Amino acid sequence: MKYTIHKFIISLITSVGLIAVVQPALAADATIGGTVTHAANGTPVTTLLIYAEDAITGDLSYGYTNDTTGVYSITITDDGSGTAGEYVVYNYVITSDEDNVIFIRSQETVVLTEGENKTGIDLSLTRRARFVGIVYAS
């Protein structure tokens, strides 16, 4: 008797189409963006590499500042584990546009929700002191 009832229920579910197929959620990339400027005068820092490091996995995503405005955008690609989490955004210390300039690393911590596009993560960079010359004695 039990076998007949189970067979009937399975037959009913199959014929009515009550079996639901679960589709995985589509990947949702996220972005982090902002502007990078010189701390001394507020002018844009151009062609500078900016990183977004996942605070848990250490995975890096990166982008470059724009050639004239210092604006950057980093796309964080969803590789299946999602994009929600905490990221540390920081700069590389040199740019090809400014010879003999080395910047102090600046960083911001950013918390993203899944697929979020976060803007306004601005960095203001200070140059490191640098001396150029000849050493005659040490």
Give the N-terminus to C-terminus distance in angstroms: 99 Å
Share of residues in helices: 10-25%
Parts with pLDDT < 50 across at least 5 consecutive residues: none
Please tell me how large the radius of gyration is.
Answer: 26 Å
Largest sheet: 4 strands, mixed
SSE order in H/E notation?
HEEEEEEEE
Mean pLDDT: 85
Structural class: mainly beta
In short:
The chain has 138 residues and is mainly β.
Topology:
Layout: H1 2-16, E1 30-38, E2 49-54, E3 60-64, E4 71-76, E5 85-91, E6 107-112, E7 117-118, E8 123-125
Parallel strand pairs: 1-7, 1-8
Antiparallel strand pairs: 1-4, 2-3, 2-5, 5-6
For the structure shown, list the relevant keywords.
138 residues, mainly beta, 8 strands
